[in-house]
Request: fold
Amino acid sequence: FETKIPSSGLLIYRVNKSVVNQTNAWGEDYLYVYRPGETSTSASAGDFFKSALDPNDNRTSFGVADFDAPLTDGTIFYSNGTNSGIVISDVKYNDDSSQITFHVEFPDYSSLGLWELVPNDIAMEATGINIDTDSEGNIYANVMGRESWNFVNKVFKYNGTSWTALGSVFSNVSSMTLKVYNDIPYVLYLNSSGKPVLAKYNGASWQTVYTDNSVSYPNDLQLFLGDSGFYGAWTVDGTTLSIKKITPSGVTNVNSSLTADYFANPSLSTVGNYIYVTYCNFSFGGGTQYTQVKRYNLTTGQWENIQIPNPLVSSNLHRSIGYNGEYWMIAAASGSKPIIVKVDGDSKVTQYEVPTTITNILEASMDISENGTVCASLIASGEDSQILYLDSGEWKQLGGSPCSNCQAADMTIYKNRVYLGSVLTGTGAISLTYKDLPEKEMPDLISVESQTVSVADGYITGLPQKAANLNLYLEATNGGYFRYDNVCTGGQVLLYTADGVLVRRYTIIIKGDVNGDGVADGCDAVIINAMAAGMLTLPEYYIKAADTNADGSITESDNEYPINCGLGL
Reply:
C-alpha cells in the first residue's frame, strides 16, 4: 500500500542494499518502485501514478523475460540497469477485490553462469577482506572494517557449514593480512604504535609470535610461503624491502638490501631456492616506470634481475605465487591489459596478456587450480568484475560476474573451486561466492606404443643408454607436452599442460648408471660394489639404477651388468 499513488493494485519494489543509510534522499534509490516509461537507472522517470498493476485498468503484467532487453522496455531491472528476467503476470482481484493473485515466472539463470553464495551473518561495515584456505578446504577470512562505530579486524573461519569468529577482535590495528601455514592461521599487522606484529591462532586465542620494535609504520605487509619455508615482509619508508623468515624457533632477518625510489604494491613468493618480488619502482624524479621482477638467491645472498619481455607501464597491482617449482605473477594497471609472467626452473620467462573489457581495475590477483588451470581475478570499480581462466591458449570467463560495485575483494582456489570474498561499496556488506572450474583431464606421460619404457611412481625406466630424443620413447596425453635436459639417472622430465603449467616431475633411471653420465660401465661397477658393501649411500634414484637384476637389494652381482656394458657385451 502506498498513499502517494492514486490507484490500487500490486506494487513491485526493489531494495538496493548498497545504498548508505538506507535512504532515497539525495537522488539515491534504496527503494525503487517499478513503473512504465522508465528511461534510465537514475532518472526516476516514467508514470509513477501507474506503478500499481491494476486489473480494473487493464494493467496485469510487468517485466520482460529476455535478459538482453533494456530497462526502457519495462523490465524488472537491477540497480545497474541489467534485466532480471523476472515476469509478473495474470494479476487478478477476487470477487470482492479484497485479495490479489498473480503469477511470477523466473527465468533459467543457468545460462548466466551465476556464482554460488555462501550465506553469512557477519555484522560489520567492512572496508577490506583477504581470504585463504587450509588443507581441508576450510575458508579463513580476515575482515577489516567498522563494528559499533569502532574500526576493527576480525578473522572468521567457514567450515563448509557455518562461520566461526576466531579469537577476540583486533582493535587499534592496521594493515592486517592473513595466511594459513601448516593449517594454522597467522596474521601480520601494525599495532597502535605502528610496530609489525605476527600472531598465530592456537585454537582458542591469538598468540603473539613476534614484534619488530626496530621499525615504525612500514608499508606493504604480507605473508608468503613456498618451497623454502614461511616468510613475512614489508617495506620501510616505501624504499627498503625487509624480508623475515618465520620458523617454530622464531623470526629471523633474511635480507633488507633491495631498495627502490618507492615500491608500488610489491608481491613476494618463494620458489625453490629463491625469493621473488614483483613491483613497480615509482620514481618521483619522473621518467617511465615499468613492472619489475627480481629474485633473491638464498644460497649466494644476491639479488638477480628477471627480464620481462613486455612489462607494463606504471603497474600498481601485483600478485604472485609459486606453483610446482615455478614462479607466476600478475601485474595490472588501469587502462592496460594485465599481464601474467611465468619463470620456470631454467629461468625461462613466458608472458601472457589477459584480455579484459574492464577499464578501471581495482584489484588483480591470480592462482592456479589443482588441475593446473591458471585463473586471473580482475576486480572492477563501477563495473562488473571478472574471473578469467586459461583453457588451451584461450582466456575464458568463469561464469558471470562474481561481484559488482565492490570496493575490495580477494580470490583463492581450493582444488578446482574458485572462491571470491568481496566487500560491497556503500554498506560494506561481506560476500563469499564460489564457482567450480570446468572439468578437464590432466596430461599424463606414457610410453610410445612400440617401446617398452615404463612410467610409474614418478620414475621413468627402460630407456636405452645414450637416448638422445625422448620423443621417440615418450608422449604426453590430453594436449600436454614435456621437457627434459640430461638423459641420465637423476635427469628430470617435466610434464606441462597445454597452457604451460608444470603439473608433474619424473626422474629418469638408466639401468646401471649410478654416476649420472647416462651410460653403464666399469666406473658404475666400482660404485655399485661400494654400495653393496655399505660404504656409500646415494639418493633413491641411484639405488634403483644400481639394482640391475631387480631383486630389491644391492649386491656384488649387480655390477655384472655395467661391466658387460662397458665391454660392449
Observations:
- The mean pLDDT is 92.
